[in-house]
Design goal:
Order of helices and strands of chain A: EHEEEEEHEEHEHHEEHEHEEH
Shape of chain A: globular
Low-confidence stretches of chain A: none
Largest sheet of chain A: 6 strands, parallel
Helix content of chain A: 25-40%
Number of strands of chain A: 14
Strand content of chain A: 15-25%
CATH topology of the largest domain in chain A: Dihydrodipicolinate Reductase, domain 2
Structural class of chain A: alpha/beta
Distance between the termini of chain A: 30 Å
Oligomer: homodimer
Radius of gyration of chain A: 20 Å
Strand order of the largest sheet of chain A: 5-2-1-6-7-8
Largest interface: A-B, 60 and 60 residues
Number of helices of chain A: 8
CATH superfamily of the largest domain in chain A: Dihydrodipicolinate Reductase, domain 2
CATH architecture of the largest domain in chain A: 2-Layer Sandwich
Number of domains of chain A: 2
Mean pLDDT of chain A: 97
Chain lengths: 350, 350
């Protein structure tokens, strides 16, 4: 049996579960799948296709013989174990923020900057979920008209904060509907000092606050977008809000193009043909992207494309995508597919 | 007993109920309160202070002897009955969109343009809920630094679509948590062709779509803001999204000031002293405005004030307010208080 030996690190998490599903659906040749997690989760049994696989402890020796390792177990785990995996010959696709801004590490969205994969030294970073769907939607427009400025407000699903956050949303919502008390323990940020109600209550905090008043999630959207689009002069600013939604992020994006000549109709035409994009934009029939329709799908759904009627070359769009799939697991597996097609599933010798 | 004879038209609705509450709390001298609604709701008994009041049918003769009439029963009812009320000597404060853009009708937010009340001919329009809280937050900044451009994304509560929408959010959420089917019948717009799930699903449609791809809600935010701030050159653009929240709208506002010299700290200082504003902006302690905290309050809560780090004189803020109070009932009763203080509770003779 030919194919790759693949490891998933963080297999028992919200993204890990989707990684298993994406590997079940991929055309990538697979020889074996190894599920890794913390020692606490080791021993659990998860299904891959028709097989039961026992979760093993993620430790350096677990990467012996692995060709491709998909990491999604938190930045700390990646910082510690990704170099160990690479040392043992595995190409790592890391879904955490640990290495994203490292100039030596490609930060890749296959629809945008697949050629950056040629630069990898064994480690490829998967961008933040909210960034990925935005650049997928903007790239076809940037290619044709150039991109000058982006102002985004996100409405992000709680699953971005993991399975415990989904559980909290459900339990808290049920409690409030029943008129019962509920003490939040996870959102907005499990490791931060205070926790707030997410049920029926948007929270304008995702990740911790920086010195300048932006959250780290907003910082990621700003700096990752510049890196992926390879343009430090691209102006990006963001407000990230968690909303009571389980799966799929919705984003309201205002953007200014560099070149003249764009119209909403022309942008819609570009989006209709763009890879990874489904245009859902028919106001006359109330067609616009919705989280419930995007959940479980790999594409980024784009609609509400229209001109800023008072500023030349400025437009709005609204994009929705499954944060666990295109925002995480699918983008990682898609990177693996590209690496395979580009013959890059190998750690370059120094 | 001295004071005003006041009528509430639409007393059985979501806003009407809050108007009763705001009149209970007002310092306005009140002689009598008359509750009016459609013939369908006539006969219902509602409480005002320690009295039971029977709801009467809203018809022209009902306004005989009324000094102040607060309308919130839909644009059609206002178009038909507001002129009848004015004809009978009542000053009308209309919470619908029926007369807002009429150049002869002042569109008033007391914190912003109270002097416009001097121009009234018997009819004053109360702006749209999403517009009011935004101009309350921006006005102190505009006054000091001038305002050039506003780009807003709203996350609006379902109560803006009435009591039936609140019921739908609750019933639908409970059904989904229980794994049951639910057929939406109200949201996003009760009178539109299609209805969609709001539970755990943001809907980027509030009010009907216009020809240019904007919704009518977005149109209102754009044009009402210009009128209230008396500046047709002020650039405003908007994306309005309904979110699974019962009460209080949250708004992510990016804005560009005209004059140099502003800093986030200076803007925070202005907001801390501004009428009708409560500054909730302390990222180090995770303090930012939240719908659950704003619900039931009259103020507009403002936070997340920070500079756009790549564009001079551009900033973000995040504002939250009770859409049924400052967005509707309280702003109407507040206008009544101002009319009383300005000795304007009379219909000018032609």
């Amino acid at each position: 049996m030919t194919g790759y030996n693949i490891a998933i690190v963080g297999a028992t998490g919200a993204v890990g579960g989707r990684m298993i599903k994406m590997l079940e659906e991929t055309s990538l040749p697979i020889k074996s799948v190894k599920l890794l997690a913390s020692s606490r989760s080791a021993g659990k049994v998860l299904r891959f296709k028709d097989k039961d696989l026992q979760v093993q402890e993620a430790k350096p020796s677990a990467f012996e013989g692995i060709d491709l390792a998909l990491f999604s177990a938190g930045g700390g785990v990646s910082k510690q174990l990704a170099p160990e995996a690479v040392k043992r010959g595995a190409v790592v696709i890391d879904n955490t923020s640990a290495f994203r801004m490292d100039p030596a590490v490609p930060l890749v969205v296959p629809e945008v900057n697949p050629a950056d994969l040629y630069q990898h030294h064994g480690l490829i970073a998967n961008p933040n979920c909210s960034t990925i769907q935005m650049v997928v939607a903007l790239e076809p427009l940037r290619k044709k008209f150039g991109l000058k400025k982006v102002i985004v407000t996100t409405m992000q699903a709680v699953s971005g904060a993991g399975n415990r956050a989904i559980q909290e949303l459900n339990d808290e919502t049920a409690a409030i509907l029943a008129g019962k008390d509920y003490t939040p323990q996870v959102l907005p940020v499990s490791g931060d000092q205070k926790h707030y109600q997410i049920a029926f209550n948007p929270l304008a905090q995702i990740d911790v606050f920086e010195e300048n008043g932006y959250t780290h999630e907003e910082w990621k959207m700003i700096h990752e977008t510049k890196k992926i689009m390879a343009n430090e002069d691209l102006q990006v600013t963001a407000t990230c809000v968690r909303v009571p939604v389980a799966v799929a992020h919705s984003e309201s994006v205002w953007f200014e193009l560099e070149k003249d000549g764009a119209t909403a109709a022309k942008l819609q035409e570009l989006l209709a043909q763009a890879p990874g994009v489904v245009l859902e934009d028919d106001p006359a029939h109330q067609v616009f992207p919705q989280a419930v329709n995007a959940a479980g799908k790999k594409e980024t759904f784009v609609g509400r494309v229209r001109a800023d009627e008072e500023q030349k070359n400025a437009f709005h769009l609204y994009c929705v995508s499954d944060n666990l799939l295109k925002g995480a697991a699918w983008n990682s597996v898609q990177i693996a597919e590209y690496l395979d097609q580009m013959d890059l599933v190998r750690v370059p010798q120094k």
